[in-house]
Design brief:
Immunoglobulin-like, Glyco_hydro_b, binds alpha-L-arabinofuranose, 27 strands, six-stranded antiparallel β-sheet, 2 domains, TIM Barrel, EC 3.2.1.55, alpha-L-arabinofuranosidase activity, alpha/beta, carbohydrate metabolism
Length: 503
């Protein structure tokens, strides 16, 4: 059996892994909100105020730190005032981006805030720049967060909510280079400054304002934003206008026209997908290096508020609903991203998987008869949740296995680790689709007094869960053996594992 050695510097504290790197995204898209999170109060499916309770229960196990809403592209055509007040009086609209379906606005501001409260997640509201106004966005902040008496507060109270909510995160539009307005970078950079100016902190609610950023490695976009709030070497504090810049990175292994199937794929597709997922590290490095030049004190955060796999929709489903299955391969895409996030936690402060339920790389797939499936990706989020707010520690794959992809050696072993409260959590992925791997964990700077392991794997990388077979891919215990230098585990092919240590 091939061997790998992973050295972990347990006594060399790195950056804190913000829990917000484990954030989520819920858009008015397909069956994410309607049929996913929200079924309405009259549904036979158990719900509270229309919110599905089985979905809430499953997601509570993930300790979701924040939830981004209402889009995505939808955010830039959403008018929040249409989504408050008695449901019967709420006007409808057409969701032009996603399926051209009618949106009845029954899930609006109050329902979203109730969902966040049920999940224990911090709200991340994304405002409308593309087709909205500065006033509309400014009033939304007032409606949500202002105390005392004001025009928006009176409306909120009339709609049944006396106390202001806390809203820590605010997005200034979405993908302004595309569905958010097809703007030039410089034009959006000015708009972001203008909108941010009127996104006020009311009382003790402090907004963390996030400008809509680049696609993938479009550094020109990021630089235009940086230039508009800072200047090379001038010492101006860049974080007075907004506090973070986002970017989006999807794992699309094929082309946008032919993205491939979530469950029917070749080994070649498998390697290409995981290689594309690994490339997130190059993209984060590039954005970070640019930000370091303009913001050497790292006051501005980098936020990856959309990431995940994007496959062809499942046969027979609405192409505008982005409904896809989720296999063991998707779980490995997630684990690879998290290893990278942990390494770059100093600049990368937040990330949001797209999307939580029934859309793209979802945690949960639901049906209208009350069926609910936890996907392989769900299990990675659950197994990794101990990294939230822990201290990242240097983790080196000293000996590993590789695969020759287009003449380049692709790493087949990935790892990261963190420490918190006298415990360590190690995450390990064996990407080899055929060979098991014996891994020595070379523990440096501390020893383990007690250890336990968990393993996620499946009969094949294409395996996925269904209502009929919900645990085809589900975590099982993993044996952890002592070794002179630390510990040893055996990872089956295409597997993800976590090892918990008491130090
Ligand atoms: O997540 C689906 C869509 O992908 C979002 O609405 C948009 O921001 C991105 O292009």
């Amino acid at each position: 059996m091939p061997e790998a050695r992973v050295a972990i510097d347990l006594d060399v504290p790195g950056p804190t892994i913000s829990r917000h790197l484990y954030g989520h995204f819920a858009e008015h898209l397909g069956r994410c909100i309607y049929g996913g999170f929200y079924v309405g109060e009259d549904s036979p499916i158990p719900n509270e105020g229309g919110i599905r309770l089985d979905v809430v229960e499953a997601l509570r196990a993930l300790d979701i730190p924040n939830l981004r809403w209402p889009g995505g592209c939808f955010a830039d055509e959403y008018h929040w005032k249409d989504g408050i007040g008695p449901k019967a009086d709420r006007p409808s609209m057409v969701n032009t981006h996603w399926g051209n379906v009618e949106e009845n606005n029954h899930f609006g501001t109050h329902e979203f805030m109730a969902l966040c409260e049920l999940l224990g997640a911090a709200p991340y509201v994304n405002g409308n720049v593309g087709s909205g106004t500065v006033r509309e966005m400014s009033e939304w902040v007032e409606y949500l967060t202002r105390d005392g008496d004001s025009p928006m507060v009176r409306q909120r109270k009339a709609n049944g909510r006396d106390e202001p909510w806390k809203v820590p995160f605010w997005g200034i539009g979405n993908e302004a280079w595309g569905c958010g307005g097809n703007l030039r970078a410089e034009a959006y950079a000015d708009l972001a400054r203008q909108y941010a100016t009127f996104l006020k902190d009311h009382g003790d609610n402090k907004l963390y304002r996030i400008a809509a950023g680049a696609s993938d490695d479009d550094l020109n976009w990021t630089e235009a934003l940086l230039k508009s709030i800072s200047c090379l070497g001038c010492g101006r504090d860049p974080k007075n206008i907004y506090q973070a810049i986002s970017f989006h990175y999807y794992t699309v292994a094929g082309t946008w026209e032919n993205k491939g199937s979530a469950t029917e794929f070749s080994l070649e597709d498998y390697y290409r997908t995981l290689s594309k997922a690994q490339d997130i590290e190059r993209v984060i490095r590039a954005h970070s290096a640019l930000m370091d030049a303009y913001d050497p004190e790292r006051k501005i955060g980098l936020v990856l508020d959309e990431w995940g796999t994007w496959w062809d929709v499942e046969p027979g489903t609405n192409p505008g609903f982005l409904y896809q299955q989720n296999a063991m391969r998707d779980a490995l895409v997630a684990s690879l991203h998290f290893d990278v996030f942990h390494r770059h936690a100093e600049r990368l402060v937040m990330a949001n998987i797209a999307q939580t339920v029934n859309v793209l790389q979802a945690m949960l797939l639901t049906d209208d008869d009350g069926g609910l499936v936890r996907t392989p990706t769900y299990h990675v989020f659950e197994m990794n949740k101990g990294h939230q707010d822990a201290t990242s520690v240097p983790t080196h794959v000293i000996e590993g296995t590789t695969y020759d992809l287009d003449g380049k050696a692709m790493d087949l072993v990935s790892a990261s680790a963190s420490v918190k409260d006298g415990r360590a959590l190690v995450s390990l992925s064996n990407l080899d689709p055929d060979a098991a791997l014996s891994v020595v964990l070379d523990l440096r700077g501390a020893s383990s007094r007690e250890s336990s392991g968990r393993l996620l794997t499946a009969s094949k990388p294409q395996a996925y869960n269904t209502v009929a077979d919900p645990d085809a891919v589900a975590p099982v215990p993993l044996e952890v053996e002592p070794e002179p230098r630390g510990l040893r585990v055996t990872l089956p092919p295409h597997s993800f594992a976590t090892v918990s240590l008491v130090l």
